[in-house]
Write a structure and sequence with these properties.
Elements (H helix, E strand, L loop, with lengths): L1 H37 L5 H28 L13 H13 L9 H22 L6 H23 L22 H19 L20 H20 L8 H33 L4 H16 L7 H24 L8 H14 L10 H29 L6 H6 L1 H6 L10
Helix pairs in contact: 1-2, 1-4, 1-7, 2-4, 2-5, 4-5, 4-6, 5-6, 5-12, 6-11, 6-12, 7-8, 7-9, 8-9, 8-10, 9-10, 9-11, 10-11
Length: 420
């Protein structure tokens, strides 16, 4: 009887993991639509190509070596089988841990859930370097980021390994439930290093320091992308509970879903109100980024806050992201979609507020963890960007930037004119 109950829990937890992974995979569509909406029409095909290609590249590189680096095991997933041995292994695990104990699910499901997180991290970079980076330079960086830079950082956090053999983040009270720092701030750190090397888009900043807005081509697409991301985030945070097959875990999953939604709503409200105060009108792009900022902030700990606390955290994140976007613009750091502010600044905020509701985390641990993640990803990414720049260059020519990356990089237009 106990064996049958365990098999049912194993099936349920594996299925839940896979469904949540599919939701996170759907976030690739969200990033694609958001970024396509916030760039100019002449760069739409290239940004869509980047998003789909980076997802495929991330899946391949994480399969080849990323998963092994992050969690141990063999390269090329050679140690993961899909045959009946999984059943025997699971039953052995049941005998040692008990069916009501730790999470139990297929290792293949774990890989699938982890690999879509890698792609999410890389998607953050795509929007920040949009409209002026060479497609193939970006994809070369994707290979390094998803195959090595992110997995090594992940091995120090979710993988439980010591940082270069020196210290263990968990021992000093670091906690990041679903990746405010591990995924989102890491992606922003990689993006920042690339943006600083690239420089701003032509015409973004005047000779006297004036800031010129470059509107996106399709705000309905950007709104759709945000709502897709909002939906996908339930899998992102909910799946990170890692288990569903008992009452306690089911209650945790429900709370995570509730708080994820509450924080997004709070972020949208906070950013909308602040934009109204600053600009005198509602600003859709700030509203969209505010909702995403709330989602990023709650990702570090969506299980322990109350719904009210999650909403207030979201409001704070929505306010912070508006201020961060304006500050980066004044610093002439050109980020077409606000990715560095959304995922970096509010990712850090999300890490630092974890101890307010989770006593197992410490402010020192969160700060050290944030510094460790940011420093490693930023420096390693900068080295890779510099190498790519020396080998093949990073930026498209001024002529191609004027004409648009679609024709220069992909040879087609997203919105061709119809002629007789």
């Amino acid at each position: 009887m106990q064996s049958q109950i365990f098999e049912l829990q194993y099936a349920l937890d594996t299925f839940y993991f896979l469904i949540c992974g599919a939701l996170v995979m759907w976030m690739a569509a969200g990033f694609s639509m958001l970024e396509a909406g916030l760039v100019r029409s002449k760069n739409t095909v290239e940004i869509l190509t980047k998003n789909i290609a980076l997802f495929a590249t991330a899946c391949t590189m994480y399969m080849i070596c990323g998963y092994a680096i992050m969690y141990g095991g063999e390269l090329f997933l050679s140690g993961i089988a899909g045959d009946e041995s999984l059943v025997a292994d699971a039953l052995t695990q049941s005998a040692s841990s008990g069916f009501a104990g730790d999470s139990v699910y297929s290792v293949a499901a774990d890989f699938f859930f982890q690999v879509v997180f890698v792609a999410t991290c890389m998607s953050i970079v795509s929007g920040a370097v949009a409209e002026r980076m060479k497609l193939w330079s970006f994809l070369l960086f994707t290979v390094a980021m998803t195959g090595f830079i992110y997995p090594l950082e992940g091995s120090w956090t979710w993988g439980g390994k010591d940082v270069f053999g020196l210290f263990n983040l968990a021992d000093i009270g670091f906690s990041d439930f679903a990746g405010s720092g591990i995924v989102h701030m890491a992606g922003a750190a990689a993006a920042l290093s690339g943006v600083l090397l690239l420089g701003a888009r032509k015409g973004k900043y005047g000779s006297r320091g004036e800031i010129r807005a470059i509107p996106g081509a399709n705000l309905p697409l950007a709104a759709l992308g945000t709502l897709i991301l909002w939906m996908g985030w339930f899998g992102f945070n909910g799946g990170s509970v890692l288990k569903l097959g008992d009452i306690a875990s089911a209650n945790t999953v429900a709370m995570v879903f509730l708080n994820t939604n509450a924080a997004a709503a709070g972020g949208a409200v906070g950013s909308l109100l602040l934009a109204r105060i600053i600009f005198g009108k509602a600003d859709l792009t700030m509203l969209l980024n505010g909702a995403l900022a709330g989602l990023v902030a709650i990702t570090a700990e969506p299980a322990t806050p109350s719904a009210l606390q999650a909403t207030l955290f979201g409001v704070a994140a929505g306010i912070i992201v508006v201020l961060a976007i304006l500050a980066l613009d004044k610093m002439k750091i050109d980020d077409p979609v606000g990715a560095i502010s959304v995922h970096g600044v509010t990712g850090l905020f999300g890490l630092l507020i974890v101890p307010l509701t989770n006593p197992a985390a410490t402010f020192i641990g969160q700060f050290v963890g944030a510094i460790t993640i940011f420093t490693w990803v930023y420096v390693a990414s900068l080295v890779v960007w510099v190498i790519i720049k020396a080998l093949v260059g990073l930026r498209i020519s001024e002529e191609h930037e004027y004409e648009g990356a679609d024709i220069a990089e992909c040879g087609m237009e997203a919105y061709p004119e119809f002629t007789k």
